[in-house]
Amino acid sequence: MKITVTVNGERHRLDVEPRRTLVDALRDDLGLTGTHVGCEHGVCGACTVLVDGEPVRACLMLAVQADGASVATVEGLAGDDGTLHPLQEAFSRCHGLQCGACTPGMLMTAVHLLDTDPDPGRETIRAEMSGNICRCTGYTGIVDAVAEAARRRVTSETS
Amino acid sequence: MKCPPFDYHRATSVADAVDALQAAGDEGKILAGGQSLVPVLALRLARPAVLVDVNRIPGLAGLERRDGVLHAGALVRHLALADQRQHPLAAEAARWIGHTAIRSRGTLAGSLAHADPAAELPAVLRACDGAVQVAGPSGTRRLRADELFVGALQSALADTEMITGVELPVPDAWGFAEFARRHGDFAVVSVAAARFGERVRIVVGGVAGVPHLVDAGDLATVDGDVSDDRVTLLAAAAADDVDPASDLHGSAGYRRALTEQMTLRALADLAGHLRPVREPA
């Protein structure tokens, strides 16, 4: 089935089988392997991307359902010159990652969180990030990173 | 962990969806939010020949309160249900569903049609004595919550029928409580409590094949405020009235104890005063 999908601002035409999930289309058809596949049944959060601005499990959405939609993935976070997104910087500084399997999903979830709540407390961060599983960090570094990115953004906007 | 092959039909209207389901015989399945169906496909627990995608049918995402009833379209997402203020019990229950990335896609009618006895919205529909509007090959019909839920993951809907709208009467007072092992998991036990006039309806999720409406007899009739004593008696009555099974997630006795605690919390919320104890004893 032919679909058109915009990923990180770039329009793509794809011909996909109906059963192809959005995450497989991103990775295998578009070569955007930044979005990771974990459990493939909606539990781990590794494949989280934004579809029309809202976080979505890309393993639970069919690519054909994204026809006409705008998708944001981790590849779109850093600048064209390689400058890291403030959340990516914060994850690096706060040891918010180790093996990196969960990181793309964590980042996209955090991007949406800070878009909707620029100044979340640690409890809110923990609750909102709880749908993304990490087996390395123990989460503290991740919560630190999101909190620090929020703090820096609020500070830079008010200074 | 890849879905088995299927044909895909993007429905343009309710009639078109029903036609497609009818053409598929008993091999069709409605795809709404996909948050339960796609895992089932990925795990190959079902192999429908045709998925009928209803997400782009116009006019099914409305929310309107009329004459004390919230009328919600089938495609209202959990995030939208959590954000609305016209039916606070439904809003509170929706916040307990999964995570934001689940609530952004999952739909009200999808949750009801899936009929998971541990899910939040089926319990709310029954607590509010709500109903669903259903479209099928022979026209439309209305099913009350008591009629809709038949057993675990089983509803009274035919393979060729689709829920188009949901009626949720707005209670005069309400409470909701849930216990799950991890944030966002399905409830081990959840309780939705709704007061309409002098009647208090208590529905327990996770203890039977369908959301269980507690039979508390005369105790459920309340004149004036719901007293602390009445809350305690009703919670004990709820624990007596359920007959849970034991499974990996908890023994029957544990579920019974949780039923009493969650009913205490839900009724304390309903009565408008929070009890100091927030953890199960």
TrEMBL record, chain A:
Keywords tagged on the record: 2Fe-2S, Iron, Iron-sulfur, Metal-binding, Oxidoreductase
Keyword Oxidoreductase recorded: yes
Tree of life domain: Bacteria
Domain named 2Fe-2S ferredoxin-type: residues: 1-77
Pfam families: Fer2, Fer2_2
Keyword Transmembrane helix annotated: no
Classification via InterPro entries: 2Fe-2S-bd, 2Fe-2S-bd_dom_sf, 2Fe-2S_ferredoxin-like_sf, 2Fe-2S_ferredoxin-type, 2Fe2S_fd_BS, Beta-grasp_dom_sf, Diverse_Oxidoreductases
Full protein name: (2Fe-2S)-binding protein
Automatic annotation (TrEMBL), chain B:
Source organism superkingdom: Bacteria
InterPro entries xref list: CO_DH_flav_C, CO_DH_flav_C_dom_sf, Diverse_Substr_Oxidored, FAD-bd_PCMH, FAD-bd_PCMH-like_sf, FAD-bd_PCMH_sub1, FAD-bd_PCMH_sub2, Mopterin_DH_FAD-bd
Domain FAD-binding PCMH-type intervals: 1-173
Pfam family, any one: CO_deh_flav_C
Keywords per UniProt: FAD, Flavoprotein, Oxidoreductase
PANTHER family referenced in this protein's UniProt entry, alphabetically: XANTHINE DEHYDROGENASE SUBUNIT C-RELATED (PTHR42659:SF2)
The name this protein goes by in its record: Xanthine dehydrogenase family protein subunit M
Annotated organism of origin: Actinomycetospora straminea
